[in-house]
Recover the amino acids of this structure.
DNA sequence: CCATAAAGCTAAACCCATTTAGTAAAAATG
DNA sequence: CATTTTTACTAAATGGGTTTAGCTTTATGG
């Protein structure tokens, strides 16, 4: 149980061979460098015996590769991101990559700081949910850098950067169509006051629906960042009270839906009798809740799989030959109780 | 916008000074090494101009410090862990530390593999939820290592290792006492079939209560690892049907409670009229649900704060002088609708 | 004016690996 | 037997820092 630090040098000395030889053996380059089988065995045996394995740090310093991919999202405690994180981690692990997570808090400053830190750690690639207010130029610059960057969940319309996102427009449209099929006409839309692409796209579906039907939109934009605070509840309460004619609401995020349903409960609005509800992005709670909540489901496994496969592909392609990969996946509707219009019920 | 790599060497050359001098200036050791103010200014100005900042990698290699703390939990997508992770991250960031997260999947092999990887990355400390079946000897060994390790959420009874946990016994007891105060007598206990310390301690409170009251325990141990699968639902269903006399159930985890309540819903068991419910560990869902669910709340902020402050304290203490820190925090009851026995209701 | 001290700076070793460009010896070739 | 090829292995540069020990030069003291 000797605590002495192992190193290639020490091994080389112990075995009376050169550092180079040991390194070759360790990296499977012994054969191509004509190291004799006898010596290979000797080195391998000793390395195994002392339980040595090389310092990634030194390795990274030398090679410029770290086998680390960073996953930077708005908030790692958000179940959606956490789930994707887990899936990515498992996938990457198989390919010998480690994942470092980090939360951007949607703060461009913090994000840039973190990217700098990671740049410096020589991470091999970045997966990022770009925060609001992030300078597109920086993203552009970063994405042309030696280490690939993939945007995720949302993209920046003006920047040519690889991304994996879902078709938010189609996703929202499917939900809205379901309302219409169920005979619901007075549909409201609750979203965040944010200009992130995914939010815009979801709202676009609603706006388009309104235009097609020739009705005027009833949109609530909850102040961004406040959605766990009282402001959100107040905004929602006001919205419900001022729009009593509504019989269905599409919530652009699951958090908003939960907040909204809580407020409805306080106001005595029954779901789905008084008000049908669909939320964008599924959630554990939705299937436990009474009533169960219809939601737009993002294909998490597919997203994770595409993220990691795209990342590896980019990493293994020379910078010059890299092409911008734009991957758009389809969401689906998970129909549950909350979106059903029950004919002949109250209201 | 030159892409040329910056390095201390390059700077030294450019300014016609030695590498040493630049290093001293960068590390604030210029004064104590009698570098003239003039030169200090010159170096600092240039460094700022080219936007240089040193490679952590090289730094770590040399100093053996990385300013990284690893946070390894069973499953980072579990909201409890994710929330703690976020809190820790924010706290650590202020002190100049970065956090790397990782999931152990409760797999001792994977855990050891990860620890090895991190050891190698020269991380400064470990925060770990030890997986079931983890060799206590290894933990013991690791905790005596140069880099501190803090166990969290659960501990290993036989190992002298620093930890931050909550008083699971008292927490569970408070919930059970609440049942008793509300006049509920036939109390069941649903837990995981796991010998993790936190689970044992929760159950201990129940067993003790039964003994005090002189009643026979009615415990369901849901197979571990299956709690998102059908097995769990089946087990729960059987338990409810075979114990119709129960009028209250304490769930040892929030997940079990959600699953349990779903099954009750299917069986037509009304909460709290037919069955009162308390869950260990609060959850977003519990305050949205109908009825809202009473739960034992873990002081997450406090846990995170203690974890980080203890870690920093250990890091900044010489190995020889380090003492094992055992921190036990108190949980509290968040009383909501599900635990009330409504007199005169059905049953 | 010489010895000593202080000021101001730097050479070089070290952390731990990878990799290029060799070298020495053995085997093959003419 | 001399030359070329192959085999088997290694020295040394490199990546980007930190830090110890030491070297000039100038100031101080007797």
């Amino acid at each position: 149980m000797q605590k002495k630090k192992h190193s290639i040098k020490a091994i080389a000395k112990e075995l009376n061979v050169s550092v180079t030889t040991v390194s070759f053996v360790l990296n499977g380059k012994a054969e191509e460098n004509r190291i004799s089988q006898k010596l290979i065995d000797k080195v391998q045996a000793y390395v195994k015996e002392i339980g040595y394995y090389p310092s990634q740090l030194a390795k990274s310093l030398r090679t410029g590769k770290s086998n680390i991919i960073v996953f930077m999202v708005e908030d790692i405690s958000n179940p959606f991101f956490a789930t994707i994180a887990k899936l990515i981690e498992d996938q990457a692990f198989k390919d010998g990559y480690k994942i470092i997570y980090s939360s951007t808090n949607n703060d461009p400053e913090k994000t840039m700081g973190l990217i700098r830190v990671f740049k410096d750690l020589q991470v091999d690639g970045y997966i990022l949910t770009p925060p609001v207010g992030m300078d597109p130029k920086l993203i552009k610059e970063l994405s042309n850098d030696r280490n690939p960057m993939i945007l995720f969940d949302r993209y920046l319309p003006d920047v040519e950067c690889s991304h994996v996102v879902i078709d938010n427009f189609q996703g929202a449209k499917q939900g809205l169509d379901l309302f219409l099929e169920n005979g619901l006409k007075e549909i409201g839309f609750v979203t965040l006051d944010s200009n992130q692409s995914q939010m815009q796209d979801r709202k676009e579906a609603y706006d388009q629906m309104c235009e097609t039907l020739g009705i005027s939109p009833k949109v609530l934009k909850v102040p961004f960042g406040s959605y766990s605070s009282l402001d959100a509840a107040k905004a929602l309460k006001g919205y419900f009270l001022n729009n009593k004619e509504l019989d269905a609401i599409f919530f652009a995020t699951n958090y908003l839906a939960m907040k909204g349903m809580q407020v409805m409960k306080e106001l005595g609005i029954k779901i789905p009798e008084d008000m049908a509800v669909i939320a964008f992005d599924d959630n554990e709670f939705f299937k436990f809740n009474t009533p169960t909540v219809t939601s737009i489901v993002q294909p998490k496994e597919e997203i994770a799989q595409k993220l990691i496969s795209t990342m590896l592909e980019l990493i293994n392609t020379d910078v010059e030959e890299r092409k911008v990969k734009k991957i758009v996946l389809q969401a689906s509707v998970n129909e549950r109780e909350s979106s059903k219009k029950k004919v002949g019920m109250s209201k």
